[in-house]
Structure prediction request, 641 residues.
Amino acid sequence: MEEGTLIRSARFRQEREADWQRLETLVLRVEKRGVQTLDFAEARDLASLYRQATTSLAIAREISLDKALLAYLETLAARAYLCVYAQQERLGGIFARFFTQSAPQAMRRSWKFLFFGFACMGLGVLVGYLLYFEASDWYHVFMPSGMANGRGPDASTAYLRSVIYDEDPEVEGLGAFATFLFSHNTRIAIFVFGLGLFACAPAAMLTFYNGLSLGAFVALHVDRGLGWDIGGWLSIHGVTELSAICIACAGGLQLGSAVLFPGQRRRGEALRHAGQDALKLALIAAIMLVVAAILEGFFRQLVQDMTMRYVIGWGVGALWLAWFLFAGREQS
Amino acid sequence: MTAAAPSRKERRAQRRRNASRVMAPEGIELNLPIAGIGARLGAQITDVLLTSTFALSLFLIIFFSELVDPWSLSAVAVLLFFIIRIPYYIVTELIWNGQTLGKRFVKIRVVAHRGGPLTTHALVMRNILKEAEVFLPGTLLLTLDSDAPYGSLISMAWVMMAFAIPLSNPHRMRLGDFAAGTHVVALQDPILLSDLAKSSSAKTTSTTKFTFQAYQLDHYGRFELQTLESFLRAQERDMDQAQYKRSAETLAAIVERVRKKIGYADAVKRADHLAFLSAFYKAQRAYLEQRQIFGDRRTDKFHRDETGS
Prediction:
């Protein structure tokens, strides 16, 4: 048909059709095999053809009544948009950035919440410890019955010692690792983080309660003259594990405080903003819990020497602290 | 005539149209239809099947190689499901820009709610919250015994709430989507059909013998034009004898209606029906497009009533 007899929108389409089809093949290829398979010229074309297609779509919406053309351009522009605005970072880069920058930076940014998290736990330990010496019956109040494993005010000192230096545990290796990972403390950490959302209080209370039972547990052993020994037994994994709970608590508190004090933002927005750091704290807590389970599952029974237990436990703790304090600082 | 209040169905369609708009950084609204609940459930089931098959086979390897003592087997099983499932969702969505294998399979995709690229934070957030929303209480629901009914009831209520939230908002966002600022869209295939105003098949060579005056093209609007377009496209496909006869009757009826409406005096021969409609489509489209450029948008044949002229 002659060029002149075509109506305006048909001419518009005829002039641009080849570009759209080229964009279409590029988009389908990127969706199937990833943007890294494009060479330089193709990647450049993808971006500029996408912008052309959006312009075409805007014009076509104004001048064309061709349903087929409009539907095609809507779909094409939408799919090209998803290809062009995609995360282009490699997985390795994302992991590296998390460990070297964003995680420690998030920790430093939320130092106030971390302070409160550790304070909740510390106060709990102190109160539990003091209350035990007031009346040892408090032990049964604070300690969940399933957790104590027969270790209570009624148990003999010899039994308590035998648990601390248990040469021949029931479970070992991978099994022990898995058991300890899904033990009481991981559940506490998840709850502490999630419950923070409800205006802080449940998270703080749960952390405090966890501290209470820990304090009573330590007091029981101190009472029998096993203070240093239980310290070693707890240190080897507890430094990492209890810190993880405190960090999870800090994340929960951060969410809760966004609900309580949203400031100039709307509550949902404040929550989303707080979630940026809280999520990183939760991931750090999860990593620490895994490390703690490794320490508990593999090393606690392997290392029977008390001083060695202290050294490993607090050494790992110092490594965590160094990571949080020194990684990802801007070079000035 | 005053415009009737939109019916419930129309309002819902309007809401769906609004929900499917995403603002691109180029300043143009793109149309990304929201994925249906069925598609999302299908993708989810595919993913769960994939991860649990993988976890189960690993578990069986561990079980038969007797690496673990029997009484910690259940803990190891839980561990395996955990360390495969959580990274699976995050890593696949990072690699394929918002698509897990299941989502690729049913052709849906996660997009940023306010346009722009998906951030790592958003993908991690929505998948970690998936655990809290569905998997953890779901596992609790499956493992709890009848001795502790309250735990089951609470987790049941929680899971039901997690499923009810997507149904209650037009973007079908679940809690994790709200927290991450994402929603899930359905992908459509771009298919470019031929331009009817340009097609030069043998049938339309005689279109030039039909001419229409401006007053004859004043009757219809965009809706009627596009309905005619759909009908003409349907004529292009292959038909058997019965279908052909039926469509010829429809064609005759349409030609008769159009002739009467626009006041086209000359009779149209039966053989020329399709050519007449093609010519009419072309003339009508050219006319309406021109009116549109001059700011006179005619959505349907009632356009005169709306403008009051």
Q: What stands out?
A: The mean pLDDT of chain B is 83. Chain B touches chain A through 69 residues (CB under 8 Å). Residues 90 and 127 of chain B are 6 Å apart (CA to CA).
